[in-house]
Amino acid sequence: MRRPAAGRVRPLCGAALAAALLLPLAAPAAVAADGKGQELPGMPSALDPDAAQVECTPASGEKAKKQDWSRQRLDLDRVHRHGTGAGVTVALIDTGVATDAAGLGDRVTAQAAAGEDCVGHGTFLAGLIVGAGEGEARLTGVAPGAELLALRGTDERGEPAASLVTQAVRAATDAGADVIAVGVALPERDEELTEAVAAAREAGAVVVAAATPDPPSRGDTDEIPARTYWPAGEPGVLSVADMLPSGARPDGVLPTDGVDLVAPGAGVVSGGPRGDGHYLGAGASVATAYVAGAAAVVRADRPDDTPEEVVHRLTATAYPADIPQLDAYAAVTTVFGGADDAASRTDAASAPVAVRDTAGADSATARATVFVLLGTAGVLGALWVAFALPRARARGWRPAEAGGESARS
């Protein structure tokens, strides 16, 4: 008996097998949005302190072609439908900010030397807070409607000093900043800085600070003992650390305790002080900028909330994990306590919280996983039909016998 369509079965099966093998590889790529996949120069947090001559970070000749994972994780498109931080001032204490940098518009002012940014790190962070999102990649900040006051807490090379950070915190308080973001972290507590931070909080500012310095480029951080860094360790300060797309802390981070919140801090894309190119940045300072932007949007939406209530809102609406993960959309949209919202804010610490499960990027990944599983099952089913149906027909629909006697008959 002639086996029907044998020549057509092999190509069909080969194509189906190839599809089954390629499908699991293709689907995750469709939702990948990690900035590490883009060929961009890295943004340093400081320059070489031992170099004989200061050489500023050069302009990047590369531009991002897609939005990085961090903005998708924070669901910024949906956040901005509810608020952009308009009417709020964020003071950024870092290496300074170039007020005329691309993508920052006219929303940045600077005091004294903070208008120059040789390192480029402060300008990079400013883009994460108030970036306008121009261009193909739409690299918007969390609070593109807010005003940003640049203050320097470092020397020209990016080396922080307690006296400079203290001076900057006081200047931010005098300027009436609603949110103070400190991108540097000091290994020793300083009495004057402690007093300055307490005064800033008393004046009504939400103070957000990096839980650790950005990791050193050389050396083994496992040899560095865990310690508290400042001003993140001060009472009432929201201490922020960095996380990977998986939610885990990056390898090689400096050990610390008392972290209140984590936010995206690896493979993050933003601009710099020179040119219109882009860079990749990482570290607790990057995560701090994102949290400061979220605090600005919350303050704009709820101007009567105290700093304590804003901090509670950011941590209580965070995605639950070993260290809560910033959920900017939930922070803006969650309603505490029921009908009497004013009463619920009075007792915010004990109020029930409705937490959104995760950000848009995670949702897209889950949908892709389901698609892979269903698609693979369908392809394997087609493979079985392609192999089994012609053979069953060739046997006259009789069960197969040992040794292939049915086929030879």
TrEMBL record:
<protein>
    <recommendedName>
        <fullName>Peptidase S8/S53 domain-containing protein</fullName>
    </recommendedName>
</protein>
<feature type="transmembrane region" description="Helical">
    <location>
        <begin position="368"/>
        <end position="389"/>
    </location>
</feature>
<dbReference type="InterPro" id="IPR036852">
    <property type="entry name" value="Peptidase_S8/S53_dom_sf"/>
</dbReference>
<keyword id="KW-1133">Transmembrane helix</keyword>
<feature type="domain" description="Peptidase S8/S53">
    <location>
        <begin position="85"/>
        <end position="324"/>
    </location>
</feature>
<feature type="active site" description="Charge relay system">
    <location>
        <position position="121"/>
    </location>
</feature>
<keyword id="KW-0732">Signal</keyword>
<comment type="similarity">
    <text>Belongs to the peptidase S8 family.</text>
</comment>
<dbReference type="GO" id="GO:0006508">
    <property type="term" value="P:proteolysis"/>
</dbReference>
<dbReference type="GO" id="GO:0004252">
    <property type="term" value="F:serine-type endopeptidase activity"/>
</dbReference>
<dbReference type="InterPro" id="IPR023827">
    <property type="entry name" value="Peptidase_S8_Asp-AS"/>
</dbReference>
<keyword id="KW-0720">Serine protease</keyword>
<keyword id="KW-0472">Membrane</keyword>
<dbReference type="InterPro" id="IPR015500">
    <property type="entry name" value="Peptidase_S8_subtilisin-rel"/>
</dbReference>
<feature type="active site" description="Charge relay system">
    <location>
        <position position="285"/>
    </location>
</feature>
<feature type="signal peptide">
    <location>
        <begin position="1"/>
        <end position="32"/>
    </location>
</feature>
<dbReference type="InterPro" id="IPR050131">
    <property type="entry name" value="Peptidase_S8_subtilisin-like"/>
</dbReference>
<dbReference type="InterPro" id="IPR000209">
    <property type="entry name" value="Peptidase_S8/S53_dom"/>
</dbReference>
<keyword id="KW-0378">Hydrolase</keyword>
<dbReference type="Pfam" id="PF00082">
    <property type="entry name" value="Peptidase_S8"/>
</dbReference>
<feature type="active site" description="Charge relay system">
    <location>
        <position position="94"/>
    </location>
</feature>
<keyword id="KW-0812">Transmembrane</keyword>
<keyword id="KW-0645">Protease</keyword>
